[in-house]
User: Which sequence fits this backbone?
């Protein structure tokens, strides 16, 4: 029951550059969430954007949502080596408490 | 801060053994989840519990069962471990605000079945 699909699968950038990850989904949603996972650890919630929002900021994170295209993007500005992680988008399954996660984008920030 | 803990970070078991993975959350959340994560497949939901003694199958429940006797604790049971159950297992719980359910994850248990 895969819903979100992230793109690219992997991204390698230099410290200080911006990183952009995209997520596409298939059905109507009331919110979309982004999570980060450091290697071998659990996921950490980053940000939630509701279907009536187009853009949301949290620190160096900027998330956009285009419901007409069924897509979202996560922008990390001025990246740091500590941002190296996998990033996942997640959408509610059928309006329930369950989330469906994409396969993730693996971001490497080189010092 | 919400804390979700899992009983082991690493576990090695033999084929055929009965395996218990424990998850505890400290924020009185109703909803708890077990996922497995495999390279190239992402996170897949095994089981979901929305209250004590209540459970619902996820996408890949075969070979697994769960127990939720107390609100804070959700256990995943591998009745007879097999090598294809070697994986990273992640537990999560949710706090809900209206229709938005942010999930809090434990650190994960990397299980190897030999």
Assistant:
């Amino acid at each position: 029951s895969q819903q979100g699909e992230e793109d690219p699968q992997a991204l390698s950038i230099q410290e200080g550059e911006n990183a952009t990850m995209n997520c596409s989904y298939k059905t109507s949603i009331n919110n979309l969430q982004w999570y980060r996972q450091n290697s071998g650890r659990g996921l950490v919630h980053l940000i939630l954007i509701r279907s009536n929002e187009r853009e949301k900021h949290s620190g160096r994170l900027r998330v956009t949502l285009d419901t007409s295209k069924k897509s979202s993007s996560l922008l990390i500005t001025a990246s740091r080596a500590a941002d190296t992680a996998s990033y996942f988008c997640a959408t509610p399954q059928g309006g329930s408490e369950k989330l469906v996660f994409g396969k993730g984008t693996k971001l490497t920030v080189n010092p | 801060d919400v804390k979700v803990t899992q009983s082991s970070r690493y576990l090695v078991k033999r084929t055929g053994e009965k395996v218990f993975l424990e998850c505890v959350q400290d924020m009185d959340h109703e909803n708890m989840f077990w996922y497995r994560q495999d390279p190239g497949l992402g996170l897949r939901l095994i089981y979901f519990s929305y209250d004590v003694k209540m459970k619902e199958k996820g996408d890949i429940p075969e070979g697994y069962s769960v127990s939720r006797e107390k609100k804070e604790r959700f256990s995943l049971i591998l009745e007879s471990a097999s090598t294809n159950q070697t994986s990273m297992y992640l537990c999560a719980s949710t706090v809900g605000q209206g229709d938005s359910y942010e999930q809090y994850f434990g650190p994960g248990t990397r299980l190897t079945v030999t």
Remarks:
- The radius of gyration of chain B is 13 Å.
- The first strand of chain B starts at residue 4 and ends at 6.
- Chain B is about 0% helix and 60% strand.
